Amino acid sequence: MTDYNDQILIDNPRKGQISRYKPAVMVLIPLGAILFQVYVPRFFQSLSYLEMPLLVTVYFALMRRQPIAGTLIGAAIGLMQDSLSHQPIGMVGIVKTLVGYFAASVSLRFDVESGAIRLILGFFFFFFHQFFYWVLARSLLGQDLHFDIQQTFLFGLLNAVVALPLFHILDKLKERG
What we know:
Layout: H1 3-8, H2 23-43, H3 52-64, H4 67-84, H5 91-107, H6 115-140, H7 149-171
């Protein structure tokens, strides 16, 4: 392996440890992200591109490093978000479930403590989320939604940039042990 691969792949068992959080953190942070998603764009239209529940889903799934836990985290956050939105219940839940599963699966292979990897994954999972929502809306609901690749790319970059400081703040909430 090259030096570059050794830096991004998990080669030290300590790097692949499962992060633990207090139950209050696991409930209040996703709830705060969902409330942010619902209420902040009403007052600040320019922040409507931020997908805070997605970023929280990605973070907790990456840090738990267990695909089943990531799936459950994504499903719970997605269904809570669905219940507060005006969209059909289950659409965001399905997509966030997929995001949670794949984010946890990625974390088994890569060192997700790296800022560059977090930036790339923040962008990738935003794009993944938007694309699969579009696919589901077209196939399950028969909606004729437009998928604007340029806008999704730009919003993905903005979400990835927001993910870096958010993930750093959430890192401070880990239980020490």
